[in-house]
Design a protein that fits this description.
CATH superfamily of the largest domain: Zn-dependent exopeptidases
Oligomer: single chain
Number of helices: 16
GO molecular function: N-acetylmuramoyl-L-alanine amidase activity
Number of domains: 2
Helix content: 25-40%
Strand content: 15-25%
Bound molecules: zinc ion
InterPro entries: AMIN_dom (IPR021731), MurNAc-LAA_cat (IPR002508), N-acetylmuramoyl_amidase_3 (IPR050695)
Enzyme class: hydrolase
CATH class of the largest domain: Alpha Beta
Protein name: N-acetylmuramoyl-L-alanine amidase AmiC
CATH architecture of the largest domain: 3-Layer(aba) Sandwich
Number of strands: 14
Structural class: alpha/beta
GO biological process, one term: peptidoglycan catabolic process
Shape: globular
Radius of gyration: 25 Å
Order of helices and strands: HHEEEEHHEEEEHHHEHEHEEHHHHEEHHH
Distance between the termini: 49 Å
C-alpha cells in the first residue's frame, strides 16, 4: 500500500469514527480507536529503535524539546492503554539514547509519549504497513547526531592493534593497513612521513554479515530458535577466527540484536574496503526432514533453481519485516550493478562460494552439492566478491538443536574461515586497500 493509500485509509477510518460518534453509546466508542497490540525496544550503540504495533495506522506528530532534551510523540485518536503504559519497562537502563519514557492522556483524543533523552538525537519516525507476522507499525528510530560508523570502529580496532604490536620490534615496522583516504592524507602531510607498508603483511578485510536482527527474526525453528541469534553467534566466532589470523581481519555488519537494512549492509562492506563479503543465514522449509548447508552467489538473470529463487525472495523481504523507511532507501547499489567489473566479481564470487561450500561439506552433508545463484539484494555489490551462506535448516529439529550448540557453531565458523582462506590462497589479488593506497601514491593516477 502506498503512502497516499495509507493516508487515504487513515482519513477514511477517521471519517468512519466520526460517523460512529453520531449514534453509538459513548462506552462503545472507546473500542474503535487504533488498539496498540505490542511495544518493543531495540537498544544499540548505532541507534535505538522503539516500535509501536497497532491494529491500524497510527496518526502521529513528533517534536524535539531542549533543556532537558526530550522527544515528544503525540498519537492522535489513541486512548492510553495498559500495553502502552508498560513501554517504560521495555527501555533498558543502559539504553544509549533513552533515559526514561512517560506515557499519558494529553487530551481526550491524544496520547502523549515523552522520551527523556541521554544525548541529542536525530529521530526517524515512520509507518510500516502490515507484513506477516506484524500489523501496522510506527517505528521510532533514534540516531545520534554524530552517526556511529562501523568503519570508524574498524580503524579504532586497528589502532589498538598497532599500539599492542608496537612492543614487538619485528612488527613495529608494519603499520596496520588503513583505508585509502587516510593513506593519502598521510602521504600529503610532509611532517609525518609514513613508511610504505610491506604489502605481504597487510590483512585482507572480510566483512561478515549476520542476517536479520531486531524486528526481523529471520526463520524460526520448531523449538523457538531464531535465525537472527544463531547467525550472529556463528559470525562472532568466525570473526574471532579471522582476527586471530594476521593475514585477515573481520568486520561485522551488525554486532547485536538490531536491524540493518540490506542496502546498508552492502554500503558498509564498501566503506570498509572489504576484500570479501560473506552473508550468514539459516534456512527454513515446510518439510522438517530437509537438511544441510548451501552457498549462494548473485545472479540477476534468474535463479539457478525454483528453490533458490524462492529463498532470495524470502531473504529480500527482510527490509519490509525489519522496517526501513522507503524514502531513505538508496538505489545507488542497484545503479552500479551495471558496472562492467561485475563480470569479474561474479567469477570470484562463484569461486569463493565453491571454496566455502567445500569446507561446509566437511562438517555435514550439504543441502545441494553445487553452488546456487539467485538475485539476493545483499549480494549486489559490483566489486566485492560476495556470497550468502545458509548454515543449515533451522526448520529441521536436529539441525535446530545443533545450531544452538557452541561446538557446532564453532565448526561452522571454522568452515567459513577455512573456505575463505582456501579461496584467498588460490585466487585472491592483493588486499583492496593496498591497491587503492598504491593508486593514491601514484601522482599519475
Ligand atoms: Zn535469512
Amino acid at each position: 500500500m502506498s503512502r497516499v493509500q495509507a493516508a487515504r485509509r487513515a482519513f477514511l477510518s477517521r471519517a468512519t469514527l466520526l460517523a460512529a460518534f453520531t449514534w453509538l453509546p459513548t462506552r462503545l466508542i472507546a473500542a474503535s480507536p487504533p488498539r496498540i497490540v505490542a511495544v518493543r525496544a531495540w537498544p544499540a550503540e548505532e541507534y535505538t529503535r522503539v516500535t509501536l504495533e497497532a491494529s491500524a495506522a497510527l496518526e502521529h506528530e513528533a517534536f524535539l524539546l531542549e533543556n532537558p532534551l526530550r522527544l515528544v510523540i503525540d498519537l492522535k485518536g489513541v486512548v492510553v492503554q495498559t500495553i502502552l503504559r508498560a513501554l517504560a519497562e521495555h527501555i533498558a537502563p543502559d539504553d544509549p539514547y533513552i533515559a526514561a519514557v512517560r506515557v499519558g492522556q494529553f487530551t481526550p483524543e491524544t496520547t502523549r509519549i515523552v522520551f527523556d533523552l541521554k544525548q541529542a538525537v536525530v529521530p526517524q519516525i515512520f509507518l510500516l504497513d502490515p507484513i506477516d507476522p506484524y500489523q501496522y507499525r510506527l517505528v521510532i528510530d533514534l540516531y545520534p547526531e554524530k552517526p556511529q560508523d562501523p568503519v570508524a570502529r574498524l580503524l579504532a580496532e586497528l589502532d589498538k592493534r598497532q599500539r599492542t604490536e608496537s612492543d614487538t620490534p619485528v612488527l613495529s615496522e608494519t603499520p596496520p593497513r588503513r583505508p585509502a583516504e587516510t593513506q593519502a592524507n598521510r602521504a600529503t602531510n610532509p611532517r609525518k612521513p609514513q613508511p610504505k607498508p610491506p604489502e605481504q603483511d597487510a590483512p585482507y578485510v572480510i566483512v561478515l554479515d549476520p542476517g536479520h536482527g531486531g524486528e526481523d527474526p529471520g526463520a524460526i525453528g520448531r523449538h523457538g530458535t531464531r535465525e537472527k541469534d544463531v547467525v550472529l553467534a556463528v559470525a562472532r566466532r568466525a570473526k574471532k577466527r579471522f582476527d586471530d589470523d594476521p593475514k585477515t581481519r573481520a568486520v561485522l555488519t551488525r554486532s547485536g540484536d538490531y536491524f540493518i537494512a540490506l542496502g546498508e549492509r552492502v554500503n558498509r562492506a564498501r566503506r570498509a574496503q572489504a576484500d570479501l563479503f560473506v552473508s550468514i543465514h539459516a534456512d527454513a522449509f515446510v518439510r522438517p526432514d530437509v537438511a544441510g548447508s548451501s552457498v549462494y552467489a548473485l545472479s540477476d538473470r534468474g535463479a539457478s533453481s525454483t528453490a533458490a529463487k524462492w529463498l532470495a525472495q524470502k531473504e529480500n523481504q527482510s527490509d519490509l519485516i525489519g522496517g526501513v523507511q522507503l524514502a531513505a532507501r538508496s538505489d545507488h547499489v542497484a545503479a552500479t550493478l551495471l558496472d562492467l567489473s561485475i563480470t569479474a566479481t561474479r567469477t570470484d564470487s562463484l569461486r569463493l562460494a565453491q571454496a566455502v561450500l567445500a569446507e561446509l561439506a566437511r562438517v555435514s552433508p550439504p543441502h545441494r552439492p553445487e553452488v546456487e545463484t539467485a538475485n539476493f539484494a545483499v549480494l549486489r555489490n559490483p566489486d566485492v566478491p560476495s556470497v550468502l551462506v545458509e548454515l543449515a535448516f533451522i526448520s529441521n529439529p536436529t539441525e535446530e538443536r545443533r545450531l544452538k550448540s557452541a561446538d557446532y557453531q564453532e565448526q561452522l565458523a571454522e568452515a567459513i574461515y577455512r573456505g575463505v582462506k582456501r579461496y584467498l590462497e588460490r585466487h585472491a589479488p592483493r588486499p583492496r586497500a593496498l591497491m587503492l593506497a598504491a593508486k593514491s601514491r601514484d601522482p599519475a593516477s
